[in-house]
Request: fold
Amino acid sequence: MTVQHDPSVYERIQAGEQFQELRRRYRSWAFPMTVAFLAWYLLYVVLSGFARDFMGAKLFGNINVALVFGVLQFVSTFLIAWAYSRHAAAKLDPIADELRGEAERRDEVGEGAK
Reply:
């Protein structure tokens, strides 16, 4: 005999179209940005290892290409964090807020029924 159980509030929300849209929006931003950042980082590492003359080229004073690339790694990290914050506020947070409200309403209804 198979016993069917009623899915929890969270399982129902996770299976819903709105949650799937939230995941799609997150992944469509996070995965390409992760790939782009890793490619940029690996370019820095590869150039540091195999293009020493290029990386050691002086740009002005004691500032060389490697130093500029290294500083740009930090700059790009902060820019990505800032861009993600804006993306999340505009595209993810409204849906997440709706889902949270739905979960709280369903949870209150479930608590009242027990």
Residues 1 and 7 are 19 Å apart (CA to CA). The longest strand covers residues 58-60. The mean pLDDT is 89.
